[in-house]
Design a protein that fits this description.
Blueprint (H helix, E strand, L loop, with lengths): L1 H10 L4 E2 L22 H15 L4 H12 L7 H9 L20 E4 L2 E3 L2 H10 L7 E5 L5 H9 L2 E6 L2 H13 L5 E5 L12 E6 L8 H5 L1 E12 L3 E8 L4 E10 L6 H5 L3
Parallel strand pairs: 1-10, 4-5, 4-7, 5-6, 7-8
Antiparallel strand pairs: 2-3, 8-9, 9-10
Helix pairs in contact: 2-3, 3-4, 3-5, 4-6
The structure holds S-adenosyl-L-homocysteine (SAH).
Length: about 270
């Protein structure tokens, strides 16, 4: 149902960028070529109303983000939309980028890494087709934002980050905000999380040249994996594990930061 809809929406996208390149004069990543529809007057009204009711000054921008960047582009799973509306993205980005937290773009989070564009977080989450009891593995915790979104839609989230400082910071943010069903670990996600397998869904938010076999092994039959595969520009792929093997579907061209560690030593092939 929703999975096929999300796919058709994504196929219409020319080039989606999920993550900015590290700083230092590298070209800015391409973002969605499509602009969100202009509904400023209505959006401002929503903002004013929401802010007044909830006392949260970010509630209006967050609702606009969901309506204009996400729902209007075809993401329609209500649990995903609710999650995107509830998670305070501004608390996962560095303070100097807080004002841009709800903009239609990826943002730097330090150590050359980025938090993905909100639409990409929503699209990938929808593609996982999660249920409330599902167990999800994320490779690439980054800021912890996507893990928090997953935790509102699934039962338990396990997330691994290879950069020590980012992993610790994300753990502390998630703890402070009370996301108790998110379990964090610092390390290379190549080998997955063997003691917690099998998973109903696995998501990679950094791009491997080739899907690590241990991650496929840790997916349940019937489970879904969403992964950007490739080097500079990647294909966002939806993998479904079957009793016979795996089915692969290409969703859209994307650009994520590379998956580092063991996968790079294995090389493509
Ligand atoms: N999901 C994140 C975005 C992360 S960007 C968020 O919501 O903020 C991708 C992250 O993957 C980076 O933080 C990067 O350090 C991490 N990463 C790259 N290779 C990895 C690996 N082998 N294992 C675990 N994390 C990895």
């Amino acid at each position: 149902m929703s999975r096929s809809k999300a796919r058709s929406v994504a196929l219409a996208v020319v080039l989606v960028a999920a993550a900015a390149t590290p700083s230092g004069g590298a070209p800015k990543p391409n973002q969605l070529r499509t602009s969100p529809p202009q509904r400023n007057i209505q959006a401002n009204q929503v903002q004013a109303n929401t802010s007044n009711q909830s006392g949260d000054p970010w509630a209006g921008p967050r609702r606009d983000m969901v309506e204009l960047q996400i729902r209007d582009r075809g993401v329609n799973q209500s649990a995903v939309l609710r999650a995107m509306e509830s998670v305070p993205r501004h608390l996962f980005v560095p303070e100097e980028h807080r004002d841009e937290a709800y903009s239609d773009a990826p943002l730097p989070i330090g150590w050359g890494q980025t938090i993905s564009q909100p639409y990409i977080v929503a699209l990938m989450t929808q593609l996982l087709d999660l249920g409330p009891n599902d167990k999800v593995l994320e490779i690439g915790t980054g800021s912890g934002y996507h893990a928090a979104v997953l935790s509102r839609v699934a039962g338990e989230v396990y997330t691994i980050e290879i950069i020590d400082q980012l992993g610790r910071q994300a753990r502390s943010t998630l703890e402070q905000l009370g996301y108790q069903n998110v379990h964090t670990r610092v390390g290379d996600g190549y080998q997955g999380w063997p003691s917690e397998q099998p998973f109903d869904a696995i998501i990679l938010t950094a791009a491997p040249p080739k899907i690590p076999q241990p991650l496929i092994d840790q997916l349940k039959v019937g489970g879904r994996m969403v992964v950007p595969v490739g080097s500079y520009v990647q294909d966002l792929m939806l993998i479904t594990k079957t009793a016979q093997g795996i089915e692969k579907k290409t969703v859209a061209p994307v650009r994520f930061v590379p998956m580092t560690g063991e996968v790079q030593r294995k090389g493509p092939g």
